[in-house]
């Protein structure tokens, strides 16, 4: 019989498990779920489902990632090594059009 991967007795002394224990205790919320639900419900005047806030947050994260990628491409094309606010402003319209529903 093989030894289980997680052994409760060795967890406190095992440095791998110690790092996971401390990182789990130090985590915090990425966004306020109830606030997002309340804002969406107020603006749409419709009821929202249980996990709609998660989908909104993921869409927001993908939007920011795409925006930064497009700004980095624009900065490289113009010969810059650093993304500036001007690069972000130039690609914001294009990125918003991509995400328009």
Notes on the protein architecture:
It contains four helices and no strands. By secondary structure, it is mostly helical.
Write the layout of secondary structure elements.
Elements: H1 15-25, H2 33-44, H3 52-77, H4 85-99
Helix pairs in contact: 2-3, 3-4
Features:
mainly alpha, 63% helix, elongated
Instruction: Give the helix tally.
Output: 4
Largest sheet: none
Overall 3D shape:
elongated
Mean pLDDT: 80
Radius of gyration, rounded? 22 Å
First-residue to last-residue Cα separation: 55 Å
The number of distinct β-strands equals 0
Q: Indicate the percent of residues in helices.
A: 55-70%
Write down the secondary-structure element order.
HHHH
In terms of DSSP E residues, the strand content is under 5%
Structural class: mainly alpha
Uncertain stretches: none
Write a compact overview of the structure shown.
The chain is mostly helical. It is built from 4 helices and no strands. The mean pLDDT is 80.
